[in-house]
Structure formats: structure tokens, C-alpha cells
């Protein structure tokens, strides 16, 4: 009889241990599944909020050196040549393929020159460098009273404006058209032929 009771206790302890082992195993599986679900949710949120957030690339002109210039105060006029360092900064997680375009340089609202932008591509998370030869001339500014004044003070303000249209492609299948605007202002020192200040919006 005593042996029977002993065997019963052993069986009961074995069952309890088995149940405890099963409970721990179920707990591990539950924790693993919850961790996996959380990981998937975080991945999905990152994909939607970061990867799939399409932004318009920045379209700017950087500071440059004027290679050749002629500023005439007596008969107000100017000519200048330089290489315009145009930059397309793409912060998206996919390449930005843009169409051919142009950048207009103006003085007092009048066009004095133009830079041609060829069709191209800015890779993801990178800056595309485009160097364009530009010639500016006051030929279309006949009778502009401000030019004489600016040349006499030695400081002339120019603007560069343009639009770049293209598509951003993420993961080879998600595409969205984006348009980038350039609107930069530069102050040219006509006495030293140097870009004294340059800012872009």
C-alpha cells in the first residue's frame, strides 16, 4: 500500500513537471510570436513613414567663380562667363530621373542668360553635380536705369530660376512624379568680378 502511494506521488510530480515544461514552452512561443509581430509592425511603419515618403529633390546653384567679365559704366552694359555648378540633391530612397530643363538668369526681371540642363538621373541619397557653361549679357537691358546705378555702386543682383520635373522610383515599382524649383539670388561685385553673396530658397 505504501509503495502504491509512493508511485502515485511520483506520477503526480512527473505530470506537474511535464505541465510546467509545456507551460514554459507555450510562453516561449507566445513571446516569440509577439516579438515577431512587433518586428513586422516596426518594419511596416519604417517602410511607410520613411522609405515611401517621397520628397522633391533640392535644385540649387552653388557658389562659382567668374572666369571672364566686362562691366562698362559709361555705356551701362555687362558680359560675363562662368561655369554654373548646378546641384540636384536627392534625399529619397530611390533614384530621381528628371527631364531636360533650363535655368534662366535674370536682372531686374529681364532675362540675361540661360543654362541648359540635359535629361539625367540623381541616384538615391546622393547629389547630382551638373556643371554648365553660362554666358550672361545685358543686350536686352537697353535703357535700364538701374544698371547704371548698380555698376556705379559696384554691386549687381542677379537671380537664377528653373524647374526640374521627374519621377522618383522606390524598389523598382513605386513611382511618383516630383517637381523641384530653383530660386536663387546672387550679388555680383562688379569691381572685383566676384560672387559676393548667394542664397537659395
UniProtKB/TrEMBL annotation:
**How does the record say this protein sits in the membrane?**
Single-pass membrane protein
Provide the leader sequence positions: none
Main localization of the protein described in the UniProt heading: membrane
Q: Where are the transmembrane segments?
A: 29-52
Alphabetized Gene3D superfamilies for the sequence: 2.60.40.1820
GO:BP terms for this protein? defense response to other organism
Q: Which InterPro entries match?
A: LEA_2, NDR1-like
Annotated compartments: Membrane
Occurrences of domain Late embryogenesis abundant protein LEA-2 subgroup (ranges): 86-179
Q: Which UniProt keywords apply?
A: Membrane, Transmembrane, Transmembrane helix
What are the GO cellular component annotations?
membrane
Database matches in SUPFAM superfamilies: LEA14-like (SSF117070)
User: From which domain of life does this come?
Assistant: Eukaryota
Name listed for the protein in its UniProt record: Late embryogenesis abundant protein LEA-2 subgroup domain-containing protein
Q: Which organism is it from?
A: Eucalyptus grandis (Flooded gum)
